[in-house]
Every structure is written in C-alpha cells, then in structure tokens.
Design goal:
This protein has 122 residues and is of the alpha+beta class. It has a single domain, classed as HIT family, subunit A (2-Layer Sandwich). The chain is 25% helix and 20% strand. It has 3 helices and 5 strands. Strands 1-2-3-5-4 form a 5-stranded antiparallel β-sheet, covered by helices on one side. Strand 1 and strand 2 form a beta hairpin. It starts with 9 loop residues before the first helix and ends in an 11-residue tail after the last strand. It binds guanosine-5'-monophosphate (5GP).
C-alpha cells in the first residue's frame, strides 16, 4: 500500500519555492538539485514535480509522460555532469526498510569517484 503523500515534506516545499535549492536541471515534470549533504563528489537528487511519496506510488499513479520525463531527467543529469564514462549509481530509498527520510520520491544520482560496495552492513 503506497504511503500517503505529505504536502509539507521538504521536497514539496522546495518545489513550491519555500526552501532554496541548487538546481541542476528543471523539466516539465521533474526537478534535479544537489543534495544538501553529499555522499559523493556528485550527489544529485531527481524528483518528480507531482505528489508521489515513493517509487511504487509514482509508478502506480503517475501519467506515462511524467514517468518518461523523470527517467529522461535522470539520464540528462548523468550526461550533463559527465558521469556516463566512469559510471554512477542511482538509488531510491522507499519506506522503513529502505530508510527513506523524505517522503517525496527522489532518485539519488551518485558519482565522480569510486563508490565502493553498494551496501555496508552495520
Ligand atoms: P532519503 O534518505 O530520503 O533517501 O534521502 C533524503 C536526502 O535528502 C538526503 O540525502 C538528504 O541529505 C537530502 N536532503 C534533506 N533535506 C534537504 C534539503 O533541504 N535540501 C537538499 N538539497 N537536500 C536535502
């Protein structure tokens, strides 16, 4: 069952212009901006402009044009920031087990240096 969308989440506030961001790319349906606490030399978040809490919610409810735009925006960020040649990682955390902190769908785009193994178990 998808998480209900909270319109007061921080990315909704960024989309409304209530909180500043360092924009990398804006398209009709998506926004990409630098993460405030980067985990790699390049750490960009790509979000849909629509009110979707997580990837499953997005795929279930979004229009095909929004889904296509979101995927193209991710690839545009990868191209614009020169990540394709040496590689990158895209991650979307969802829900409690996914350790999602902001309940608006976002894809982390990470790169710019070797990123190490995907998960470090604690
Ligand atoms: P999550 O854990 O939900 O997958 O990732 C949330 C991400 O949002 C984190 O990497 C965190 O650093 C980032 N973040 C949280 N608040 C802000 C903010 O106000 N501005 C930006 N640019 N990133 C934020």
């Amino acid at each position: 069952m998808p998480t209900p969308y909270d319109p007061q989440n921080i990315f909704a506030r960024i989309l409304r212009g209530e909180i500043p961001n360092k924009t990398v790319l804006e398209t009709e349906h998506s926004l990409a901006f630098h993460d405030i606490a980067p985990q790699a030399p390049v750490h960009v978040l790509v979000i849909p402009k629509g009110p979707y809490a997580s990837f499953d919610h997005f795929i279930e409810k979004a229009a095909p044009a929004e889904i296509a735009d979101f995927n193209r925006a991710i690839m545009q960020v990868i191209a614009d920031l020169g990540l394709a040649e040496m590689g990158y990682r895209i991650i979307s955390n969802a829900g409690v087990h996914g350790h999602q902190e902001v309940p608006h769908l976002h894809m982390h785009v990470l790169g710019g240096a070797p990123l190490g193994p995907m998960l470090q178990r604690s």
